[in-house]
Design the sequence.
């Protein structure tokens, strides 16, 4: 199962810029690259902060851009999103019974479960799973107790080493992690956004996690600075492959790579 992760697109209404960048133009190039070079992908996921101010016009521009992308899509919402605006423009997006934009999906081979969580708590920057969403997750996991789960969510429910996000992280992450750790099938990986810089890590008890790089603006990596500068960075997305022998996350940020000539195949040893 191959999944393309795009995160923190921060789309604004057409004609506007954000931090001097055009989020729609950047995303258009990313989607073109995905469409032209990743024909074997099975799924496209947006891990939140789809729109910068939750504006309907921003979601409309995304809907237009996706019209020539031949991939099913799952959406996560981030703190910059607005659930009502998103659902108005994407009325067919998967939601749970309470209207949260979250869902589950078995992988193509049926060996893994993917869960897409809604961590948006409107009015706050930090995320929440809340008791209601935790119950949904518990019930969802209970339907396939033996399947290992891979989680997609906007806010990082694990330590991330960025002081800027200390007060605006996942406020009830312990609730989420408790549900996940109780899953008999285990947790293979947690993919998130929010921090805008690439990160790979593992929890003390062995749960792997990673953050995609922001699609629009990114951060200078001043980890202890509570207000690090925003930065422009490479266009990018992450290629996630879920196989029996592992979960792989290849960061693709090589849009402007300069070819230097062919390499040679190495027969070994
Ligand atoms: Fe963001």
Sequence:
């Amino acid at each position: 199962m191959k999944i393309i992760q795009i995160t923190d697109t921060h789309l604004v209404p057409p004609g506007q810029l954000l931090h001097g960048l055009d989020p729609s133009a950047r995303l258009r190039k990313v989607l073109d690259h995905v469409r032209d070079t990743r024909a074997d992908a099975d799924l496209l996921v947006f891990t939140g902060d789809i729109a910068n101010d939750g504006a309907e016009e921003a979601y409309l521009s995304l809907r237009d851009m996706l019209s020539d992308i031949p991939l099913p899509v799952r959406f996560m919402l981030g703190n910059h999103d607005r659930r009502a605006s998103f659902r108005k423009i994407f009325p067919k997006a998967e939601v749970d019974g309470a209207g949260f934009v979250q869902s589950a999906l078995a992988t193509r081979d049926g060996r893994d479960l993917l869960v897409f969580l809604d961590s948006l708590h409107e009015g706050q920057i930090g995320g929440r799973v809340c008791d209601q969403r935790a119950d949904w997750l518990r019930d969802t996991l209970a339907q396939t107790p033996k399947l290992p789960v891979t989680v997609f969510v906007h806010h990082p429910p694990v330590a991330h080493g960025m002081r800027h996000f200390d007060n605006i992280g996942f406020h009830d992450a312990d609730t989420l992690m408790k549900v996940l750790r109780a899953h008999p099938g285990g947790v293979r990986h947690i993919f998130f956004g929010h921090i805008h810089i690439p990160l790979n890590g593992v929890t003390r008890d062995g749960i792997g996690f990673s953050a995609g790089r922001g699609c629009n603006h990114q951060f200078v990596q001043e980890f202890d600075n509570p207000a690090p500068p925003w930065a422009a960075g490479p266009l990018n997305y992450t290629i996630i492959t879920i196989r029996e022998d592992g979960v792989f996350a290849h960061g693709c940020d090589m849009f402007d790579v300069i070819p230097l000539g062919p390499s040679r195949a190495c027969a070994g040893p």
